[in-house]
Amino acid sequence: MEALRAHPFGESGPATHPVLQPERIPTLDILRGVALLGILLMNIQVFGLTEASLDQLIRNPHGGNYWLLTLVYGLFENKMRALFSILFGAGIILFLTKTRSGSGMEAPELFIRRQLWLIVFGLVNAWGLLWHYDILFHYGIVGIFLFPFIRLSPRALLVCAIVVGLIYSGKLYWQFAEQKQKYEKFLPIAALEKKNKKVKLTDEQKEAKSAWEGLVKEHQYDSKADKADVLAMRSDYATVWTHQLPKIKQMEAPFFYQLGIWDVLSMMLLGMALFKWGFLSNRLTTRQYIFLALGGLLIGQAMAWLSLPVHELEIVDFAKYVSGSSLPVADVLMPFERAFSAIGWASLVLLAYRAGVALWLWKALGAVGQMAFTNYLMQTVLCTLFFYGYGLGYFGDLKLYQLYIVVAEVWLLQIVFSLIWLKTFRFGPLEWLWRSLTYGKRQPMRLTEKTPQITPVFS
Question: How many whole angstroms separate alpha carbon 78 and alpha carbon 43?
């Protein structure tokens, strides 16, 4: 680990080469596989159902589907995506401090090329495959910002992660404060109209009234809009594209620059710190992993269940949520809830791996994680073709519990595909394409192909 604290870049020298099989860190692949498969537990809900219909389960809290939604939300919402971001942060250090070979480019140049191509893949995932919750575009941009942080110590990286997490909490609180301000401006207008129904409002009062009522309407169930949403998603590609376009624009522009960047940045910084400490590469003691598993999950889950009533109240009665709360607990705690939970889940996985049980499971998860890029985009392709109208058109047709049957099938398919593929090839197909584009030349694909001679980064 001392090498990671050294100056990472020389003034000259050969450039970085792709990670070869003997150089891979098994636990990184395993954790990446867990995170990748875990992300689908949350994404499947939006792939297969309207968000309005999911909210309706909370407004009518009874039956197995409500409890399933609550359980998945409490255990996995934001946690698996946080772990995925943590691992991407670790990958930044791994890429910039790995061994080198002579391809004519320095590690920094290759890293920027790598991130720019990731942005392109993210745009394809969102605008071509029509997945508006794509994270590749965000990862590509944030990764470039993190380039200078490679030089920081683990403690400094952790401090940066906490600061960014606090900024994220602050942004979420500010959003709530703006909503509360709209409510407080509306109250005297409502009282005035109640007192005199024929009162003539000023333009400023009309604007304030409209702002609050529009906000309330956004949080109410509209059956006609919900049915129209389902109908559009069951239509041809052009119709689905037009319908998804506003959501894609929202996620990749306003949401990202206002909130998403702080979300991704905090977890990637945490991942860089954890990697430098040896947490992700299985270098801590068993006692330390037990402490982190228990502490992370207890604190993270306590925050999650404490936040749950507030989260549900926002959906059930938005006016009561804004008027009766001085602090949006669910939002303010979320950046730290997911960090503690992600560390807890990762520690639990590493403890099970260290125990040496179910070796077949670790091999399977490692294969999925080694091909995480391919498998992430494969999830988009499989789910959009299954649910959207230009495929099988099952959008809005299945109950929540039935969506998890689809999840199990996708998991099985990805595990089997990954294991079979890696018996012949070094990389997943999209990993190979990404690397070839990054290095500007075709990379060795088959296990039997010769690899370039390598020399250490640090001498």
Answer: 11
